[in-house]
Each structure stands twice: as C-alpha cells, then as structure tokens.
Amino acid sequence: VKVLLAEDEGITRIWLEDLLTEWGYDVVSAESGSEALEKLNYIDTQVIILLDWQLPEISGTEVCRRLKSDPGRSTRTYIIMLTGRDSPQERAIALACGADDFTTKPFEPADLKSRIEVGERSLASRS
Amino acid sequence: MDDFAPKPIQRQRLAKVLARAAGSNPLTIETALDNRTARKEPPSKPMSTVEALDDERFCRTIFEQLSRALGRENARNHLRAVVMEASGHDRLPAPSTEPSGATDLGRSPSEPSFDYATALARAANLPELLKKIARVAVSQIPEWRGRIQSATRSNSTEAVSQAAHTIRGAVSNLAAHSCVDLAAALEIAARNNDWPQIKALTPKIDAELERLSSSLRRTVLEAS
After folding, report:
1. Residues 6 or more apart from B176 whose CB is under 8 A from it?
2. Alpha-carbon distance B58 to B54, whole Å?
3. Would you say A22 and B126 are in contact if contact means Cβ atoms under 8 Å apart?
4. Largest alpha-carbon pair distance within chain A?
5. Residue A52's closest CA among A68, A64, A38?
6. ipTM surpasses 0.95
7. Which of A36, A118, B25, B68 has a Cα at 20 to 30 A from B158?
8. Which of A8, A9, A11 has the most B C-beta neighbours within 10 Å, making it the best mutation to test the interface with B?
9. Are the Cβ atoms of B122 and A9 closer than 8 angstroms?
C-alpha cells in the first residue's frame, strides 16, 4: 500500500519515513500542502495519507477539503491527520474537513501502525 | 474496531500536574474511594488505584470532594502522593519555589534532558533510527534557537508561535519532556500575546535546547 506522508518538520518526517518503510509501506514524502497535492496527481492507486495539520503553503485541513470534494480522489484516499493540536474542537474541525482519522504527536509506533491498518481495511472495503 | 477514543486526562499527565504541588500527607485514595461508595455511585467493578487515576470523571470528583474537606492545596498534595506512588515513583520531585507560571516549567539541570527509554520506544526500539533522529535534532537545534530569538526580537507572536510549535513537535519524538513543556508554554504565551511570559520563557527554552543537544551527543551519538 502506498503512503503519502505530508510533514514539514524534519525529525518527524524522517522518523515516519523510516518506520513506514520498516513496516513495508511504499512511502512518498511531501514537505508542504501544495507538494502533497502535486504528488497525489501521480498516484493513481489507493493511498493512505498521513497529513500534518500545519503545513506551509496549503494547510492540512485545506488539503483535506480539496481531496474530499473531489469524488474521484475521495474514494481512494484515507486521511489520517497528524498534529500537535489536541483539543476536542480541533479534532472536530479535522474530521469535518474530511479526515478519516486524527492522531496527536508524539505518536506511539504501535498505535500509528494500527491506525494505518484500519485505513487499509477501509480502503479495501471501498474497492 | 473502527475507532478508539483516549480519555483526555491520563495518569502520567495528571501526575505531572499534581507533582507541581508541594508537601505530602498520609491520606490515601481509599478515602476518595470510600466517598465514592458513600455517594452510591454505580458500583460497577472494583477499581484499582491505577484504574481510578485513569478515570477522568472520577479524578475530578475526588479532587472536588477532597478540596471541600481539606482545601485545594491539601487536596493536591494528597492526590500527588497517591499518583506518584501509583506511577511507580519512589521519590517525589521537589516543588518549585518560583512564583511565575513560566518559571516552574522545566527541570533541574541534574535531570536528564530527554527520556532515553521512551525515545527508543518511539523509534520502535531501533537504536539506529534513534541515532538518526538525534543526529538531525542536533543539527537543527542551532536553527531552532535562532528562530526563537529572532521571532522574539521581531515582536511577532505568529513567528514565536510557529517556532515553538515546530520545536514542540520535533522534540516530543525524543521524549524531551522539559523542552516540550517549555515550547508548549511559549506557544500558548504567543497565542495570548503575552510578551512578559514570552520574554521569560525565551532564555529558558534556549538553555534547554542547548542542554538537549549536549545530552543527545553524549548519550546517543557518542555512545558506543
């Protein structure tokens, strides 16, 4: 399964890239919201997106809105919003923007892996 | 299962908050458990201390009850002792004597600037990954310190908030708790446009980042 990782902060990005690769995922990374959208243009399979909230150029929530308003993309993307924000209001905003899941930094590897696996199951049920 | 919702207040977080209170007292959580029974709440199953401390509503209830009976400060002290005991700590940290909210953050210089075991666990117990992350952190710390300093000098709360947010996210991967606390406080101060607090926190986070850098070099990068 392909995973698009959109994270501008270097340490978290490297950490996630290595973990995801270790777990056997095909990882594509982006450092901004616009780069994430651009890279998605070249991915024509189902994709799990790990999306940081606070991204340069286009925010994570705006990326979410754009993807979920496009029916062609919406059905083949599963979005997990990654963020240091941790209030019920912010969770609600992320989910209202179209995120399928929401988790806060720092991540526990086992928890993140489980969430990605939920994403895989969700995508499999759509195909 | 399709989703999982964690409780907002967790034992360790509660322990951290309560640990800032001073003093000690022999009263134990059993008193609060008795109060719970007296109020005829649903008995459900018996709760261990650890389970009780993971129950947000229960924690609030016992704190309110103890506060009414003993005053808030004493209630904090009792709960703190119980929480630390349940968390496996054999010694309570010394309370801060400084009055400001900014100054009681951070830890004493003798304490580790990051939690190696937790950082390694977050790196899926892959020492090479932890080393890689530490190397990146050490290389980025001078840039972060510069960002905070220049954001403070430029009087831009937006820049301070963004820099603090970045640092908080990055160092949380390394379980650098003191640095995370300082960055979180700085982020909040910036959102509140609280310049006295920002100016009080800036040198503290700068020093803590320097300490973290030295510690990462010594503990992770130069370790055989």
Report:
1. B113, B114, B115, B208, B212
2. 8
3. yes
4. 34
5. A64
6. no
7. A36
8. A11
9. no
